[in-house]
Amino acid sequence: MRNRVLFIVSGVGLLLALVSAFLFSQQPKTPPPLFPPAANPYPHGIYSNGVIESDQAQGNNINIYPEVTGPITQVLVSEGQSVRKGDPLVTIDDSVQREVAEQQKAQADAAAATLAELRAEPRRENLAVAAAQVRNAQATLKSAQDQLAKQQHSYDMDSRSVSQDALDNARNAEAIAATNLEVIEKQFALTRAGAWSYDIQSEERTHSALDKAYLSSAALLAKYTLRAPSDGVVLAVNSGVGSFVSTQGAYNTYTEGFGPLIVMGLPQNHLQVRAYVDEILVHELPDPSRIHAEMFIRGTTRHLPLTFVRVQPYITPKIELSDQREERVDLRVLPLVFRFEKPGDINLYPGQLVDVYVGAK
Prior knowledge:
This protein has helices at 2-25, 95-120, 124-157, 164-193, 197-222; strands at 46-54, 62-64, 70-75, 82-83, 88-92, 225-227, 232-237, 244-245, 250-252, 257-259, 262-265, 270-278, 291-296, 303-311, 316-317, 332-341, 353-360. By secondary structure, the chain is of the alpha+beta class. Strand 13 (291-296) and strand 14 form a beta hairpin.
């Protein structure tokens, strides 16, 4: 009985082992791809990774950095919004710079008032006072002359009627009155001549220096409002109200580095693709006049024809890696730029990776 039980248990174990071996030896069926892989549409086409960019003559996007530092007080646009050249985008706290500009404006205005005063000289009131002083000096001189004439006439008639001392005093009084009249007449001429030309030139330079300082300060004040440098679309706003920004841009918590505060692109009726051709395939590129290309959108079966724009004639390290297993981090590539019309039935955005095949017409 015991041998029979052992035999049955051994048989069951063997059967389980055979079933397990069979099951584990089965290869899982490969699921079909979600979408067909990009197919080379050219007999000798060159494959490359591409990045969609804003369509513009130079560069790939418009990166806007502040020229001043401070906390953001307002964000006036949202991502995806179309803007016109000169539209305000972001404001930075300008309270200190505004006070400096207002102080320098007050100094420039004060210098302008002083300059206007110098140019307006002589004042009518000052001329009237100076003329009255001349008439008073003339009257004083006439009185001294008359007194001297009387003293002299009396002395001539009878030398004992007037003392020599009194006669001398009368002569001295006439001389003093004449000198005083001469001084006052010259002072009147000086008043009538107005401000000295050198004083005006000095004040002109002072006003010019203060005015330029104010204009410089006002220009710096204007930089606390970031404005759109051209018509376009806001692609990214990389900071918010209260965040401190500098000329290095905005700090990104995730990358732990600085980047542009705002990224803009041109109006997106058209986009461009920057395709990176592996350096070992560069010699296979056709002549630029015959280059043709197609772009395959990942995750779909769509592909779009591309219009060749230019070659960026400088081989650089590839920075837009596509995570393909055979891709090296030290891969060097030649960028080619293509243009295409944005389709209305599929969403495409700058920064999106695509597959590009380059061939010849």
